[in-house]
Amino acid sequence: MSRPLLITVIGKSARDPEDPVPPQAIVAAEEVGRRIAEAGAIAVTGGLSGVMEAVSRGAKSAGGLVIGVLPGFDKNDANAYVDVAFTTGMGFMRNTLTVRAADAVIMISGGIGTLNELTVAYEDKPTVVLEGTGGWADRIRDIAYKGVHLEESGRRALHYAATPQEAVDLAVELAHTDARARRGGQLELR
Q1: Residues 126-163: pLDDT tens digits?
Q2: Has residue 189 got a pLDDT over 60?
Q3: φ, ψ (nearest 5 deg) of residue 122
Q4: The domain spanning residue 15 has which CATH number?
Q5: CA atoms of 179 and 171, how far apart (whole Å)
Q6: pLDDT tens-digit profile of 159-184?
Q7: HSE-up (13 A, CA, CB side) for residue 24
Q8: In which domain, by residue range, is 177 found?
Q9: Would you say residue 166 lies in a domain?
Q10: In the 3-class helix/strand/coil scheme, how is 92-113 assigned residue by residue?
Q11: Residues contacting 187, CB < 8 A, separation 6+
Q12: What one-character DSSP code corresponds to residue 62?
């Protein structure tokens, strides 16, 4: 039985009006969500506002399924486009669940919570950074070792995309490659 890919999108929330989500991130996130659905994958987000809501809206516009992994206990906290609201009661610790559920991760913009999710994803999930969306997505290359590693050993690598289409195509490709490598016993991602 073949299961659909789960593509988790991490990104900046809109919870602080004094620290808004960049408009280009919202536009890109909605297109990413739409393209995830068009690829036959399931969109997974933190289920709240900002990038998460835009991804959800985009996926729903293309008839996709959206899973929201919520920090609290109330399913009603999910944005209006979430189909499956998974409550955790874990606060920011839910970031680990959000990315560990994924077959691949796409980062759009991002504040400190997104940076936390990125470091968790980097451990064992193929991760694509959509540049040009502001926040950490536009800074991470400058601070990463050789522009792609979050640790000195270089065992894992970040991947970069310039457009939503490229980000989704790359995430899907990497998810399939990673699944084949895991079945073959090779966990190394490059």
Answers
A1: 999 999 999 999 999 999 999 999 999 998 999 999 99
A2: no
A3: -55, -30
A4: 3.40.50.450
A5: 12
A6: 999 999 999 999 999 999 987 767 66
A7: 12
A8: 6-182
A9: yes
A10: HHHHHHHHHCCCEEEEECCCHH
A11: 124, 181
A12: T
When divided into structural domains, the chain yields a total of: 1
Question: In angstroms, rounded to a whole number, what is the distance separating the alpha carbons of residues 70 and 82?
Answer: 10
> Tokens standing for 50?
């900002």
- Domain assignment present for residue 75? The answer is yes
In one-letter notation, the amino acid at residue 24 is Q
| pLDDT beyond 70 at 190 | no
Residue 20's contacts (CB-CB under 8 Å, 6 or more residues apart) are: 14
Q: Does some domain include residue 187?
A: no
DSSP 154: -
Rounded CA-CA distance 64/15 in Å is 25
Asked whether residue 150 is domain-assigned, the answer is: yes
| Cα distances (Å, whole numbers) of residue 53 to 17, 59, 83, 179, 181 | 15, 10, 12, 28, 32
> CA-CA distance, 121 to 116, in Å (whole number)?
9
% of the chain exceeding 70 in pLDDT: 94
